[in-house]
Amino acid sequence: MRSVTEVREPFRARLRGGVLAAVALGGLLGGTARYALVLAFPAPGTAFPWTTFAVNVSGSFLLALLLVHVCEIWPPTRYVRPFAAVGFLGAFTTFSTWMVDTDRLLGHGHYTAAALNIFGSLFAGLAAAVLGLAVGRLTAARHRRLDARRGRARRYGRWAR
Amino acid sequence: MIILPAVGAAAAVGAVARYVLDQYVQYRSPGAFPRGTWLINVTGSFLLGLLVGLGARHALPEQVVAIGGVGFCGGYTTFSTFSYELVHLCDKGLVGKSLLYAVSSIAVGLAAAASAFAIGSL
After folding, report:
1. Tens place of pLDDT for every residue, chain A, 161 residues?
2. Contact of A68 with A136, CB cutoff 8 Å
3. Which residues, other chains included, contact A45 with Cβ-Cβ below 8 Å and sequence gap of 6+?
4. Domain range for B8
5. Who contacts A92 (Cβ-Cβ below 8 Å, separation ≥6)?
6. Which residues from B are below 8 Å from A98, CB to CB?
7. Which residue of B has its CA nearest to A87?
8. Where does the record locate the signal sequence feature (chain B) (predicted)?
């Protein structure tokens, strides 16, 4: 039972109209981009779903890279994360198609392709996220070095190292 | 091609549903394990399996499957957050949670998709 002294903000206070609009706009663009790619590179019937694979792996790389920039490099913003991370990349990539495609491959007896789809996407997605984090952190470290150099230059004159 | 804007709009609705549900789960039961994304991906896999099953056996129009499946379910579920959360949990030293998250998402998600497809094509 919740204690009577506990003050808790209501859930609705967490939701902001502008943030929801940013998620919706990002989702609109991300979903449209994925569907356009699926139309351009269709995976017919029981073929290996390369398009979804590529979308998911590239989206994982971009999300990790973006989140390092949002959390460690760029000044704080309100709409970048809801628009680009939650909205665009969240809707661009898809988990449900990954599952249903695997089920279809299993249903047609393509067990190797099904296993390849599950483990290939999982490990390629993980590797892409690790790579995105690594690239983002290298950039963050470079920014910190440049900032430190600029700070010294301000303090001791332009050509001081 | 003509339904491209409708698929995009459905993806926008799916993305907002994902954001609101994830925030709600974090509000109700905060914790390191990404329960919100887990629930979203499993329920979305069920819904897509159902739509694809209905389309395959009961002639649910292809456009409805595209708008509801590719649009809504695709926008609702997410792979990028899933893989980011796996790496993020390992980063925090919670390797066991990360492993449990991966295995349970895939096992339950696949079971949800398969059973929903079976129900849809009954």
Report:
1. 555 556 678 888 889 999 999 999 999 999 999 999 999 998 877 889 999 999 999 999 999 999 999 999 999 999 999 999 999 999 999 999 999 999 999 999 999 999 999 999 999 999 999 999 999 999 999 988 988 888 776 666 655 44
2. yes
3. none
4. 4-120
5. A30, A31, A33, A34, A55, A59, B80
6. 79
7. B15
8. none
- Whether B102 contacts chain A with CB within 8 A: yes
CA dist., res. B89 & res. B32, Å (int): 8
Query: Could you give the C-alpha distances from B109 to A43, A97, B43, in angstroms and in order?
Result: 21, 11, 8
Question: With contacts defined as CB-CB under 8 Å, which chain B residues touch A134?
Answer: none
Best mutation target among B18, B57, B83, B88 (most A Cβ atoms within 10 Å) is B83
Q: Which residues of A touch B66 (CB under 8 A)?
A: 35
Burial-class residue B111 by CB neighbours within 10 Å (0-12, 13-18, 19+).
middle
Sequence spans of domains, chain A: 15-156
State ipTM.
0.95
Interface touch B71/A35, C-beta < 8 Å: yes
- Least Cα distance to B14 among B38, B57, B44, B42 occurs for B44
| Cα–Cα dist A47/A113, whole Å | 9
Query: Which residue's entry shows tokens 């943030």?
Result: A19
- Report the binding-site residues of B for Na(+): 74, 77
Q: Which residues in chain A have their CB less than 8 angstroms from residue B77's CB?
A: 94-97
Report chain B's C-alpha Rg in angstroms: 16
Query: A91 to chain B: nearest residue by CA?
Result: B75
Sign of CA dihedral A29, B23, B80, B69: negative
Contact flag A63-B81 (C-beta cutoff 8 Å): yes
